[in-house]
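Archive record
______________

***
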Amino acid sequence: MFGKALTCPKCDVPLIRDMKGTLEADVCPTCGGMLLSREAWKIAREDWESALALENAYADTNPMPTLALEMLCPICQVPMEQFYPPDAPNLPIDLCTQCGSLWFDDGELGKLVNVIRSRQAKATLPEEETEGTPTIGWVYCANCGRENFADSEKCWACGEPLVPESPPLPAPFQIAAEIMSMTVGGAGAVLFGLFVAKPHGDKWAALGLVLMVVGLASLAALRRLWRRSGGTTIFPTYSGH
């Protein structure tokens, strides 16, 4: 699809060019993200089976969530901007305004295909059958833990029917728990960075490393094990795998 070797904007590893059906993309074998050209984006919106086949062929193998402070286009090496597809206005995707390429994190293409298919199916139903159907928010699959749009009927990843679950804690407590997890992880990162290279600083560096692991692990547990029925203001699109 592209004429030069590309690297993942998150993991900095070479992307693999792969094609499933009619859809071709450059995929990261580590985080499962993929780069689609403008033409491939049009194909993905029409050929759902090829898009899901490509999505399901790769997964995020990182033990911890990979966060990038700035997403650079693998082709142009310029910062990408967030793009909200008309088909899924609550799913931000990274877009390069120079070459038109789009970057999908692991799971995002599957969510997009799922919501397009679901909304097209609902468009054929009588109006009285679609009244009151939620169109914004998330529901977590009780089988695999993947995020799905609230108006989806089946999980895009495993195909199981979606049954909304009540949050184990009120939303303010869940958000507070996430903030606390991020604070602990951030404090650990600061300790580790300050003392890792200093003489006799190994104990403080070890403490910082432990705090980082605890903070990130608890944050991942909050988002994956609880499988909340709605996103939060902290990581509205994060999906643990």
User: Anything to note?
Assistant: The two ends are 28 Å apart (CA to CA).
